[in-house]
Structure formats: C-alpha cells, structure tokens
Fold this protein.
Amino acid sequence: MGSIQHSAALLLFVLAGLCVGQRIVLVQEGRLYRAKGYHITIWCNVSGYQGPSEQNFHWSIYLPSAPEQEVKIISTIDPSFLYATYTQRVRSGKIYVERVQGDSALLHIKELQDQDAGEYECHTPNTDERFFGSYSAKMNLSVIPDTLSATMTPQALTLVEGDPLELTCEVSKSTAQHTHLSVAWYHLQGSGDAQATVILSLSKDFVLTPGPSYMQRFLSDVRLDKVGDTTYKLSIGKVQPSDQGQVYCEAAEWIQDPGGSWKDITRKQTEKTLLTVRSQDRDFQANIAAVESSLAEGKPLQVNCSVTAQNSQNRWFQVVWLFKGVEVARIDPHGVLALKKEYEERAALGQLQVVKKSNEMYILKVYQVRLKDNGTYSCEVSEMEKASAGFSIIQSKMLSGIDVNVKPIESHMQVSVLSKRQIVEGDTLILHCEVSGATSPLSVNWWHLQKSGDQLEHIVGMERDGMLRPGPSYQERSANRDLRLEKINSTTFTLAIYNTSATSDGGSYKCEVTEWSMDRSWKQTQETSVAISPLKSKLRVNTEDRSLEISGSTDTEIECSVTSLTQRDSQLAITWYFLPPSPADAAPLQIVRTNYSNILDYGAEFSSAMQKSKFHSERVSSNLFWLRILSVNHGDRGRYYCLVEEWLWSADRGWYNLGKKESGKTMLEFKVSENKLHVEKTNHSITATENEDVTLSCLLQGPSQPASLFSAIWFHGLEHSGMKTLVKVHTSGMVEYAEEAMVERLHLRRPSFGDFNLTLRSVEPGDTGVYCCQVQEWQQDSGGAWVLRASELSGYTRLTALPPESTISSRVCSSPSLLHFILIYPLILFLGLTAALLYLSVKNRQAHKESIYQRKGKELWVDLKGTGDVEPTYSDHNNLEEEMNNLKEE
C-alpha cells in the first residue's frame, strides 16, 4: 500500500512539474535487493529542463557507515569526479554510465560487491537560466549473498531411437528475502558455440512452457515434474535423433522490486549430460521444388533440394546441382561449396547464392534471373561415409528436374515534370520529376538549356544506389549547397536550385530517367521551361591590388573592404584565400570562412593548431574585415584575398544568397631584416630510398651576440610551388608541429650551438621536394622584452625519394621516355632507313628505264626520218607513237 501511495505522489509531482515547466529528476525506486557478484543497472531521468537536450549525470553514494558523507562514483561530463576508491573499477569498465538518450541514463555496476550497498544519488547539473525544481534523486540498494545452487551429475548416455530418458536437477536457495525460482532444461546441438534451445521451462509463476522445437511433443512425450522440495525431473518418453547433443539445467532466482516488476538476481547452470541417439533406418528421401517456376526477368528464383532421413544430423550428405544436365555447383559433406566458373563469377558479384541451410535443406538462389537462366534444374543427393582417404558414396538419388520459365520484361515507364513557370531571381527553383509504371531501379539526370543554340549542360545525376554526381558547371554550387537533388519517394525526384540567377538559371530544364533491368535499360525524358525575373546580383568589394613587405616575426593585417550592399540588413560571410607565389596557375587555398552566423570553418591546409593560432578573421567595422597574421615568416609569402557573400533572411525561404564578390589581391612579401645572420647558404641535393632516414642541415655560422636567443622554422615545398611550414623550434626549446601526423616522423635536434638539424624518418614519396630553414635572432630591449634583431634563410636542400631496391631494369621499365628510347626509337630509325633505300632503288630503276626510253626514241625517229629533207607524214607519226608505247610497256 505504501508503494502505491509513493508512486501516486510521485506521479502528481511529475505532472505538477510538467504543468509549470519545473525541472524534475527521477531515479529508479528503491529499496533494491541485488546479489553479490552480479550486474546491476539503476536508471535516472530528468524532465522539465529548459537547456540543451543532452543533460549530464553525476552518481554518488552515501554509505551506511557515514550516511551524511557523499562519495562520488562517476560522471558523464567530469572524468575527475570519481573518488579514488572507484578509480580502478571505472577505468576497467566495471562501473560505467550508459546514456539511453539525452535526458536519460543508466548506471551499470558489474560484479556487485558488499561495499556497494548504500544510498545512491543521481544529480543533474543545472543547464537552465534559473534554478527551479529538483536536481537530484536518491534510492537505496542492499547487497545480499548469492545462495542459489543448481547441480546435476554429468553423464555420457548412448540410447537407441525410441528409448526413454530421465534426468534430475537439484535446485535450492536460502535467501532471507522473499524470492521465487525458475527452472529450465536446455538442449545444445554440436559444439559449445552453437545456440542452446529450450526443452521445457518452469517460470517463477509456476507456468510450464515448452521450447518451439518441443511444442509437438509436450506432455505426450516430454514433461517436467517437481519431485519434493528441490528436485526437478525431465522426462522424454521416446528419444529422437534430434535429441542428440548436450542437455543441462539452469535455475534463476527472482525478486520483486518496489515498482512491482520482477528481476532475476542470480542464475546458475549445471554441468552437461552428453546424449547420443543411434538410428536404425539408413534410407533417406530427397525432393526438389521451386518457390516459383514461372517468373519474369529480374525476379528472384529459389530452388530447394531437401533431404528427409532419420538421425540426419549425424549423417553425411553431398548435393550436386545441375542446370540443363550440366553440373554447376557442389556442396560436399563438410558443407564446402564449389562453383563452376560462370556461377562463381556471379556469386562473387552477389547475384547468386548456393547454401547449405541445414543437413536437410540445400538452396540455390538467383537474386535476379536473366533470360539465360531459363531451363531445367535438378539435383543429385548422395549419402557419404568417412573412409581412410576421405569420403565414399553409400547411396545416391538423382531427382527429376524442374522446368523454370523466365519471361522477358518490357518497360511501361512514363515521366512528367512539374514546376513553377516563373520565379523571382534569388528564389528557389523547385522541379519535380514524377515517374510512373517503372518496376526496376531508376537513375535520374537533370539537364539545363539556357537558350536555343546553347550547349546542353548537365546539372546533376542520381545513380541507382543514390550516389549524386553534379555536372562540371554545377560542382561549385553543389559544394556550396546551392543545389540539391532528393528522392522524395520511390517515384518522385525533386531538384532544388537555391539563389537563382536571372542571367544563367532561366531556360529549359529536362529530366532524363533511365530504368535498369539486368543488362538492359529504357530511357524517358520530359522537360519544362522556367522564366526568372531579375532582381537588382548591388554588392561591391574593393578590387584594388595591394603589396605589403613585412619584416620577420611581426604581425600584419590583410584588408577586405565592402563598399556597398544590396540590402541594409543583409548579413555577410567572409572567406579568406591564399595563393602560393608559384606556380602561376596554383589553385587558391581556403584559409578560414566566417559565415553569416559568425561560425568559423578553417580550410584543410590551415586546420592544424599552429595555423589556427596564426591566422585570425576579424570584423573591424560593419564594412571592413581583416585577416590578421601573427609572426609572419618566409612560408607566408604569397597573395591573399577575400570572397564576400551577401545573405538575407526570408520567412518563407530562410537564409538565401544575394550574391558574392572577390576582393583585390594583396601580395605579401617577406623582407629580410637589415641585421645580417650568417646562415649556411649552400644548396644541396639528396637522394634517399623509401623508409630511409634523412638529416637536413641548417647551420648558423660565425660569431653571435652572447645575449642572443635563436629560433628556427623549417619549410617544405615542391619545385615550383609555395613553401609551407613543417615545424618550429622556439627560443625556449619548445617544438611546435604544423601537422599532428608528422610528430613521429620529424625530429629536431641541436647537436651544437647554432645547429638546427631536422631528421626526416622513414622517407615517403610525398617527401620529395625542396626544404629550407629560417633562423631568427632575438635580443632584449631596454624594457626587458624580447624583440627580433635579425632573420635569415638557409640554402635549399632538394630531396628525391626513390622506390626501394631500384635497379637498372626497374628504372627503365618505370620510365616511359627511356623505354621508348631503347625499344621504339631504333625500330622507327630502321623502318625509316629501309624506306629510304627502297625509294632510292625505285628511283634508280625509273631513271634507267627513262634513259633507255629516250635513247630508243631517238633511234626510231632517225630510222623514220632517214637522212633526207622529207618531213615524216601523219602515218609516220602514228607509227612512232605506237613504237614508243610498246617501249613504255616493256
């Protein structure tokens, strides 16, 4: 009765808290009784808070020996919250807090100990603007001894199928509290890794329940009886081959918690009895069946080959699958699968599966049938026995085949496009592509044609697996989240283009849908036209180029000035970029972006702790922004500029982009101080094999002031690109790394004064490039502050990393130009010489024939004309021409 009154009062307290917005902390109702050595969980919830959805929890205990003293156990937010007595158990995971959700958590205590008894308090730190309500709750826990006992004499029994079986289990307890017992018998087939199944169980409420596999045999063949106060007897009237395995008993002790629920506080298992059941019948039956024998192309096909036999679990079977009378798969007695080549390839691609589901069921499954899968399927089942050389066949059964008819499919897909025909510039353009009649996976591509005669541009595509692929002209807009393609449901694909432009986004939009079925596809397109009314894209930024020359280790600011805005209440997002001094076409690197909500996002090249502490984006006034660079060094040389984005809030559209402008570029040069340091300027070249260690030298030469301190910065870059900072050693000797990943590979040491050597461990291909260091000299001024006196760059060291065990042959094979020179160029030269010789030979033969031709012609003319003055007649000319033609043919 007291428990009911407590629960009712607690419910009224919660409801009252919810009505007035009061914070309430609830903990599991006690007192709880749990057994020593077992796992306990205690829940704690908080409600009515106004802060973040994720709350934190502190757990403490008040021991009976000191009920007023708080002993801290564990916290979800403060690792140092716990007292020393709980340190080892918390760190080893024997005490931990599981967060169920943001405002609900469970305290877990493994292997409960006597000293864990006491009053537990769950405290939730305040996250609200004011204190109102409860912030902690308490409950009591008592730790009681484990008195449960469950025993059974282990046996190894061999029975013949149909014999009776009786096993007894002794269960007792001597707990002072009121508890109930439950007892269950389990059957375990095969090794200890197998899953045990319930034979019969007697619940704490004295309800007798059979396991699923023993439901048919309950009462008639399998029963559980309680004999006396502590004995539980399992009886099986006729054992079956499926009963073979291990049998054991498990007992559990249950206690009723204050809330009314029952909880098991102890659990014990007996030792196992090994049961062997011999079968007398050696015959077996086999059957083949298809789930569906007439099906459309692309549908799943499943053919089952089943075996029915007594004591089948202890017998060995081999199954061979045949398609059109040819073996395609074989499952041996151990369940090992062997597939023919084509089926093996299809299985590797996840298109086909042949499995032994059990000793009685073998399955051939094709997930998407093709036309070539049309035909007769059959299987041959053989019972095997172990022999000295492996297995031998006892008996085999060839099953008659099943005819599978695969019907080709056709597409009935239809596509329609829906959208607004006219929008205002800056609004979101939403286009819906709706598909009907499709039964296979779909892929979608959107295309844009601005005006007639223009080239069709690919906007974005969605593959069958949901992968998005933006077109070349839309990749930047996709990266800026100004473009989105979503599959709203199985038949609707929606394209949204944000911050539309009247000059570039108007025109015709086409949706192209492809339906894919096996090795075939069908394509349908539909398009619509959209007009975009212009909005006066007025944001202006100072585009004047500037130049700064900075002395070493001083701070500087790069300026970004906004001269006009489209809207007075618009917000600005500023992105700073860096262009290395070389090459000329180097891609800009994002330094840091401050969005319209003043959230910072550093680029990948500037995300290290060193870079974040060096580069800062500041808003000096409403229209003036600075990129502040601290302690400028040689690696900061290059051009800097900003990209300004103008954003406006709309109740129906949210934040949308009005436009963006680039500023002019500021060239930052590093000016070496007039005070000279003598740093070795000699350039070096080093060739190293991968995984080899390399030491780079940076040596300060000549005398220096006794009161000076020195710092050094190492840089790395490629042959024709900018230098980036690797590591810095301060005057105090502290080493600062630009990238956390390089800490293990970079080793700075000073074997002597003025020597700032850098050792690069385990050289990789990416380490190839140019290295140099910048040495800085510091002295105290009259006020005691350390100021930079001089700064100087070292010479360059060019490092080349070669692959391991590089030989002449490997160098030749790895160099295309050298390989061409050795193999191809001689062949070209030989062919050229051969062609020249053939040409000269032909020319000589033609010249010789021409000479003979001319000489013969003259002789024929002299013969024709004779020595007289009479001119040859017309017929004489014809005779001469005929003779000359005959001579040509010769």
User: Anything to note?
Assistant: The helical segments are 2-20, 87-91, 341-348, 475-479, 609-614, 808-814, 816-865, 874-889. Residues 822-890 form one domain. The first strand starts at residue 24 and ends at 27.
